[in-house]
Amino acid sequence: MDAATIGHMLNTAFVFSTALILAALGGILSERSGVVNIGLEGLMTAGAFAAAVAAYKAQEAGYGGASPWIGVIAGAIFGVLFALIHAVATITFRADQVVSGIVINFIAGGSTLYLVKLMFEGAGETSLVNEVFHKVKIPLLSDIPILGDGLFNAYPTTYLALILVGVIYYVLYRTRFGLRLRSIGEHPSAADTVGIKVLRMRYTAVLLSGVLAGIGGATIAMTTTGSFSHNTISGQGFIALAAVIFGKWNPLGAMGAALFFGFAQSINNVLQLFDFSSHIPSEFIYMLPYVLTILVLVGAVGRSRAPGALGEPYYQGKR
Amino acid sequence: MSKLIKVVTKDSALVPFVAILLGLLVGAIIMLIGGYDPILAYRSLLETVFGNRYDFGETLTAITPVLFTGLAVAFAFRTGLFNIGAEGQYIMGMTGATVIGVTVHLPWYLHAPLAVIVGALVGGLWGMIAGYLKAARGVNEVITTIMLNWIALHLANYIVRRFLLEPGKGRSYMVDDTASATIDWLSRFMDDARMHWGTAFALLGVIFFYYFLWRTKQGFELRVVGSNPDAANYAGISVNKGVVKAMFISGALAGLAGVFQVLGVFHNQVISAGHTGHGFDGIAVALLGGNNPLGVLLGAILFGVLSYGAAGMSFGADVPPEIIRIVIGSVIFFVAAPGIIRWLLKRISGKKRKEEAI
After folding, report:
1. How far is the alpha carbon of A111 from chain B, nearest alpha carbon, in Å?
2. Which 8-state DSSP code applies to residue A136?
3. B330 lies in a domain?
């Protein structure tokens, strides 16, 4: 295997990982505030759908190269809409967070396909968007041997995801907002006593998770597929959830996990090119994220500890 | 109206019914917005299901797997466990039955029972993994079962692709006729609907659920573990053993759903890119049925009717069948957050009162 192949592999890994990183960041914000979010899959679906439709309409309207960006913004908005359902149900009405997440996945899958059929005359897929993202070469840096091909010749969304990892890491661990967010996920009543608005903070966190997961879904539609159908999002939300846990609810950790899962996927693709797949069945590579997540929870590979109040609805005035 | 609120808020048994009505209403509103006729749509749904023998039979066949997975999820709930993994246990049950059905050759009186037992066992063991991890290492079963669902999907695909694949087709070899669980005379009577013994077994499952949990010592112990683990511990009931046992039984029930889909309906197993959803539907059925055997049965019937009738809806009223996913999602949503129903009713009656004052 030469340097070019490795660079190419790394590059594919970043493409796969981008959506995972974004959705995992969303998952971290929500779960750090104490709200379980197994609805990431549904939020990504909503984002991918909205992006495919909005970018298509924008392209028709002649927005050209701005179309995919319009798609990403639409993805964020749709992500927020569905996250709002989750927030209202779990925070205001104290519904079971896991059940609500399942409902989000259900409704997002159903309603997006319903809308696709409504808008595209019964077709099961949105019309293909030609104006999708193109890879951007960063001058000088893209001349570095392997890493240049791998990282510095990527989609703009990949750069966006990596920047957001830094931003969210900084916000969580270096700002007052972040400290408060973490505190309401660990011990909401203690946070309440010192005057932190627990419910409002949780709303913010869950809605932000909708923004991030929605953008995550949008990046898949705007880079890989160019359209939306029933299998545009198939399991990425759950891999992102796995990345949250495997990354120990930490943005850097989740990024590492997402990159690792993405790399496993791209190895799989490359292996198929070289026909090594008879040695390592691709199914085992697909399984890897999930198996590793269980192992990390069991404590066989490090130890992963969930936020203290994860999954518990907060009743004001409850002791 | 205020009486209605009292009834709804006091009597939680009414919540599912209100939730179903609201869910259908949400569906109707969405259809109206989309420019469809909801009354025509719901009528064609019912006409599809009850219109002729074939469709009625197929509806029963559609009810069967969700009845099994509903029972599976409800059973785990009764022991205080949230089994999101019915989907994975279903897939493993399917795989167990396919392996036996394709690779083993026996007379029918041994072959079919063996396939059923192996499928149930494999499903049960798959569920037990999550139970064991919870008991031994304190790992939350929600996360492990989610992960196990995806592992099961890919593992089953691997087994089918590597060992059972019929060349040139994306599925396994057909299961031997000796392993079939179809009821041929009934199928003929139902105009060739795919009738099978699984439906009868699922009904037996309802009785087993009730008998085991409320009429046996073991079942009592599981319920104690579910309602108060500390009390169970104090009374000398092993919580850990209970957790493992409950996940095994729950997994076996979900596994049976898959078993009969193979032996009774499809007679083969396809390589699948995604989940069938029967396991997730089971969660909805269990919630809808209040984790009570009779409730689960009613929930499964509603589910089967809605999901099979959805096809007729798109045929008769041109509505995309996905609308039913929205209806079902909303129903679970309202069941899971009964507070919303109370709030809505209060708002409506509040407005009424203001109008009266004017």
Report:
1. 6
2. E
3. no
